[in-house]
Each structure stands twice: as structure tokens, then as C-alpha cells.
């Protein structure tokens, strides 16, 4: 869905303009980042933003959520499940025409699927999330309703992805984070995406910045094959997929990267030696980790400072972000930093 990006200091002025022009999609939630506010608009053509006031505005594609979708879903779910309502996770995730739910039991799953499919006419399949397992931390899924399939065609930030949920980790909830990093990339940069999965970071950057050379490294053979297919699907010749272990492949890319992305929050810290091999001077790193809400950022920054100091390097934090809740006490955090 299209939206208008406005700097926070100009947001009220842009909001008033969109209201006067009857462009504001009032039934959708706004999206906020550290620097910008994104307003959903009713127009489906990027040219509709041509006459917007200056002020650094830009028409972009974003995943805006309907305002009443969550509350309506919970209300209908409560009506369907009664007393059992409190024992199940309340949200669901849409992946193309596939809905992913957390069902407490087969009966609950069937009731939840009826609600989800009733609210989303394009949903053809409902799957229930199971535990994460194995070397590649893949989640199990069980069939609940609709067509029995485990693949979906998903579109995000101008790119398309064929996804098999049984072969790799993928979360639509990280779509905003991928868009944020993509906007920070400068044309003609060399970009390394470690632990690239099916290629969302690499492909979205490659598609938005045709002058960049992007390399995605992935250890999971099935995820790697999906990344190769998705590169072809998006008709990109500036994105390379590499099958292998980052700690071994890094030696083949010495002094390659102007920017490195590390979307493996449980283990990114284990690959900092590889970052030193791959990075150019003044390389920017987008680093992700899990940590406590209270001390997570300070603990990660202390660890990173100690690591780089021990290798005769300096680093400077450019940005800190709470990417998403992980548990009652933990968050996934993002640190953008530059190394010298």
C-alpha cells in the first residue's frame, strides 16, 4: 500500500495537506520510525504525490495495517472460542494467501481459521505455528484449513518472494526493518548480507539500488536455493547468492563491504571476526541481537566496544532500535554502527 513519508517535524503540516486533498486513508494505522512518519494514502498511483509540499516527502510502499483489524479479530475470536479464548495467542500473520496462527488445539485452530478466512477473503490456506527445531532453527507448521500447501508468493517493499515456510525462517513483521535499512543504502555500495535466508534484505536492496553489488551468504541449502530462485524472480543481476558458512566464506571477500547486515540475533556476535575480514574502512554494520529491555543495548555496546578495541579498531553507534518484542523480558534490538 502506498504512503507518504514525512519528517517528524513536518508531519502535522503534511497530515493537514493530505486531509484537505482527501488522500488520507483514515482506516489504516500510521507507521513511525526514529526520523519519519508514514501516512497511508488512498491513491494507488505514485504520481498522486507529485504535488505534495516539499519538506522531504516521498511516496513509498509500506505494509500499513487496518485500524480495526486487530480489535475486530479479537472480538470475533472471543465470540467463537468463549472461555478458551484466553489460552491462545491472539494475533495472526499474513504471508500472501497463507495465514499463520498459533492454535492451542485442533478445535481452536479450526475456529480461528474460520475467523481469519472470514476477515481475509484472499486467504486460501491456514497453518498453525509449531516449535522451532534443528540446526537452522526452522519452525514446524501444521495444516489447519483451506488448500493444503506450505508455500506462498509474498510481496514486500517492491520485491516478490516465493517462500516455503518449512525450509527457512521468514517474518513479515521485519518488513519495516528491511525497508529502513534499504533506505539507508547508498547507490554503488558493496553490501554483504550474512545469514541471508531466502534473500529478503539482499533482494530488496538490489532491486532499489541497481548500482550496488550485493552478496548474500546462507548455510541452509534449501534456503539458499530459494534465494537463487527469488533473485531470478526479481530479474536481478547485481545480487549474488553464496552457499556456505559465513566464517569460511568471509576470507573470499576481504575488504569488500561498505555495508554489512547481520540478521541473526541469537548468534551475530560469533561472527565479528568475519566482519573485520569483509569490511572496508568506515564500513557500516546493521547488527541484531536479543537482550533485556533494561540493559540489552548497553550490554551489547560494551561487548562490541571491547571486541573492536581488542583488535585495534574503533566503532561508533549510529542508531539504536527496538525491532520487536521477543518475550516478556527480552527484545530484539538493532544497532547500526560504523567501524574505523
Could you describe the 3D structure shown?
This protein is an alpha/beta fold. It has 3 domains: 2-61, Alpha-Beta Plaits; 69-149, GMP Synthetase, Chain A, domain 3 (2-Layer Sandwich), CATH 3.30.300; 155-339, Rossmann fold (3-Layer(aba) Sandwich). Helix content is 28%, strand content 32%. The chain has helices at residues 11-20, 69-81, 106-119, 175-184, 200-208, 221-233, 246-249, 272-278, 296-310, and strands at 2-7, 31-32, 36-40, 58-61, 93-95, 98-101, 125-133, 138-146, 151-156, 159-164, 190-193, 213-218, 239-243, 257-262, 279-292, 315-325, 330-339. The strands form 4 sheets. Strands 13-12-11-14-15-17-16 form a 7-stranded mixed sheet, sandwiched between helices. A 4-stranded antiparallel sheet has the order 2-3-1-4, covered by helices on one side. It has a 4-stranded mixed sheet with strand order 5-6-7-8. The longest helix has 15 residues, at 296-310. The protein is globular and about 60 Å long. It starts with a strand and ends with a strand. The mean pLDDT is 89.
Question: How would you briefly describe this protein structure?
Answer:
This protein has helices spanning 11-20, 69-81, 106-119, 175-184, 200-208, 221-233, 246-249, 272-278, 296-310; strands at 2-7, 31-32, 36-40, 58-61, 93-95, 98-101, 125-133, 138-146, 151-156, 159-164, 190-193, 213-218, 239-243, 257-262, 279-292, 315-325, 330-339.
Amino acid at each position: 500500500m502506498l504512503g507518504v513519508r514525512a519528517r517528524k517535524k513536518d508531519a502535522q503540516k503534511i497530515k493537514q495537506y493530505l486531509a484537505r486533498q482527501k488522500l488520507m486513508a483514515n482506516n489504516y494505522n500510521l507507521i513511525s520510525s526514529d526520523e519519519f512518519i508514514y501516512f497511508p494514502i488512498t491513491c494507488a498511483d505514485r504520481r498522486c504525490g507529485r504535488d505534495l509540499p516539499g519538506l522531504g516527502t516521498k511516496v513509498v510502499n509500506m505494509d500499513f495495517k487496518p485500524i480495526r483489524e486487530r480489535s475486530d479479530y479479537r472480538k470475533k475470536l472471543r465470540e467463537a472460542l468463549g472461555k478458551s479464548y484466553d489460552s491462545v495467542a491472539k494475533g495472526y500473520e499474513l504471508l500472501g494467501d497463507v495465514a499463520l496462527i498459533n492454535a492451542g488445539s485442533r478445535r481452536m485452530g479450526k475456529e480461528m481459521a474460520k475467523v481469519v478466512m472470514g476477515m481475509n477473503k484472499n486467504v486460501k490456506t491456514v497453518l498453525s505455528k509449531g516449535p522451532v527445531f534443528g540446526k537452522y532453527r526452522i519452525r514446524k507448521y501444521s495444516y489447519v484449513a483451506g488448500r493444503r500447501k506450505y508455500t506462498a508468493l509474498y510481496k514486500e517493499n517492491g520485491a516478490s518472494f516465493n517462500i516455503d515456510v518449512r525450509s527457512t525462517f521468514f517474518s513479515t513483521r521485519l518488513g519495516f526493518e528491511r525497508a529502513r535499512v534499504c533506505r539507508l543504502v547508498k547507490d554503488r555500495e558493496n553490501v554483504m548480507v550474512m545469514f541471508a535466508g531466502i534473500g529478503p534484505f539482499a533482494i530488496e536492496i538490489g532491486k532499489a539500488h541497481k548500482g550496488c553489488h550485493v552478496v548474500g551468504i546462507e548455510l541452509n541449502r534449501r534456503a539458499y536455493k530459494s534465494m537463487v530462485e527469488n533473485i531470478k524472480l526479481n530479474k536481478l543481476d547485481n545480487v549474488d547468492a553464496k552457499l556456505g558458512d559465513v566464517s569460511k566464506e568471509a576470507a573470499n571477500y576481504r575488504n569488500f563491504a561498505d555495508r554489512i547486515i547481520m540478521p541473526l540475533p541469537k548468534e551475530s556476535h560469533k561472527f565479528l571476526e568475519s566482519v573485520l575480514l569483509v569490511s572496508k574502512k568506515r564500513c557500516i554494520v546493521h547488527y541484531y541481537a536479543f537482550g533485556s529491555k533494561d540493559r540489552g543495548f548497553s550490554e551489547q555496546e560494551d561487548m562490541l566496544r571491547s571486541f573492536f578495541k581488542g583488535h585495534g579498531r574503533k566503532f561508533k553507534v549510529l542508531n539504536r532500535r527496538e525491532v520487536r518484542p521477543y518475550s516478556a523480558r527480552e527484545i530484539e534490538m538493532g544497532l547500526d554502527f560504523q567501524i574505523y
